[in-house]
Structures are given as structure tokens and as C-alpha cells.
Amino acid sequence: MTPLTPFHVALQVRNLAEARHFYGEVLGCPEGRSSDRWIDFNLFGHQFVVHLNPELGTAGRVSQYVNPVDGHGVPVPHYGVVLEREDWQKLADRLRAHQVEWVIEPYTRFAGQPGEQATLFVLDPSGNALEFKSFVDIAGQLFAT
Length: 145
What we know:
Layout (H helix, E strand, L loop, with lengths): L7 E6 L2 H11 L4 E4 L3 E6 L2 E7 L12 E5 L2 E5 L1 E5 L2 H13 L4 E8 L7 E7 L5 E6 L3 H4 L4
Parallel strand pairs: 1-4, 7-10
Antiparallel strand pairs: 2-3, 3-4, 5-6, 8-9, 9-10
């Protein structure tokens, strides 16, 4: 299998200081280049950029819609990363230590079924939804039907 190449994603945030704290301190993502309008982060080897959108305002949040998946309301849209189980557990523990507010607490989704996965959902301060998941066998389970 060809190794995956890093993805690039850019999102809007209401406040760069909030984003810098959440992505840098809470999630532990190293910061790359930045300006007074955007910040690059290394999100588990991927290029993740937050762009300031002043129209969101200091009290604004990105609106969310949810779809039911395995008995939980999954926020749409959302983004995230598939991690090795040890890295996923370290991240879940880190988020607990920072006392984040869970959208969906860490749990095993589709238990005993094809595609069984550990998953968790949180929101950043602007309301962008993040999912981090892990499979025992990523290559064999990521696209299981």
C-alpha cells in the first residue's frame, strides 16, 4: 500500500488566541508559520490551518447539525485524524486532563461489527467539530463494510 500523504485543511475561527491555546496547548499541536490572520498547526503530521473570520464575532460559533450514528448525534461538518490506538488513548487522556467538554465522550463505536473503532468528538472554541478515531487494524478496518 502506498503511504498516505499529509492532508491540508483550513477552517475559520473567531479568535486566533483561543485557537492557539486550544490547538497548541490542549491538543498539543506544534505551531508552524503564522500571521495576524492565520496559524499553521501540525495536526498529527497534517497541515491544519486556522483563519480568522471576524464575522464570527467573539461570541460566535460555527453552527452544527447532527446525524445519528451508532446511537450518538455526530456533528456535521467535522474533521479529524485516524490515530494508532496508543496515540488515540494519549489524546483522550490529554483532553480529559484539560477538562474539555465532550460532544461524544471516548467510546467504542460499532462494537463487535466490521469497522469497530474507538472515537471521540470535541468542539474547538469557535464551534468547529473534531473527531479522533482509532482502529485495532487501520488498514483492514478503515473502509470495512
